[in-house]
Design brief:
With 185 residues, the chain is mainly alpha-helical. The chain folds into two domains: 2-42; 82-184, Orthogonal Bundle (Cytochrome Bc1 Complex, Chain D, domain 2), CATH 1.10.760.10. Helices cover 46% and strands 2% of the residues. It has eight helices and two strands. Strands 1-2 form a two-stranded antiparallel sheet.
Length: 185
């Protein structure tokens, strides 16, 4: 008797198809929420969010971005081939400060593959086939400074490009350090 009373009360409040409508509405709402948000950002961006805005510090005026394809005042780096790079010479003098700076760059960017002493036995480099070149090997010592600079800038085989990561001066300092490794070893 009690069950009939509850069923009658439920039907009286919600009607015959109420449970079905509520279930479909709940499923539809969850589907709509899933479509409006995805793991790659919002499909429909209702509110502008902070992470889309260019940020700046307190009491710092907003920065204006340079126009697309603008050339910096220092000029754009010239593109040249590997054969043309053989003629380029390092304009930096080999001073202890520059070699020390090159050592710091080598320890930060190169030792993982080439090893701390430049022998091609870094922890990450051991997984490569072929192994990274040792700095004292013929494939490096027989190259001109310009060719090494080109390889640092454009990458080669497993070696990544450092043209956008290091300035031209840093790449030349790195070459000074590589040459000092060849003198030592």
């Amino acid at each position: 008797m009690r069950d009939r009373l509850v069923q009658g009360l439920f039907r009286g409040l919600f009607g015959e198809g109420a449970l079905r409508r509520m279930s479909l509405g709940l499923i539809g709402g969850m589907l709509a929420a899933a479509l409006l948000t995805s793991c790659y950002g919002y499909l429909v961006d209702v509110f502008p969010e902070m992470h889309y805005q260019q940020s700046y510090r307190l009491q710092e005026p907003p920065r204006r971005l340079p126009p697309t394809d603008s050339v910096p005042i220092t000029g754009r780096a010239r593109d040249y081939s590997f054969a043309e790079a053989a003629e380029i010479e390092n304009t930096l003098a080999s001073t202890p400060e520059r070699v020390a700076s090159g050592n710091q760059l080598f320890q930060t960017n190169c030792k993982h593959c080439h090893g701390a002493d430049g022998r091609g036995e870094g922890p990450a480099g051991l997984y490569f086939d072929p192994l990274p070149q040792p700095m004292q090997g013929e494939r490096v010592t027989d190259r001109s400074d310009g060719e090494i600079y080109w390889i640092l800038t454009n990458g080669s085989s497993n070696m990544p490009k450092f043209g956008s990561l290091l300035t031209a001066e840093e790449r030349w300092e790195l070459i000074l350090f590589i040459r000092s490794l060849q003198e030592d070893g």
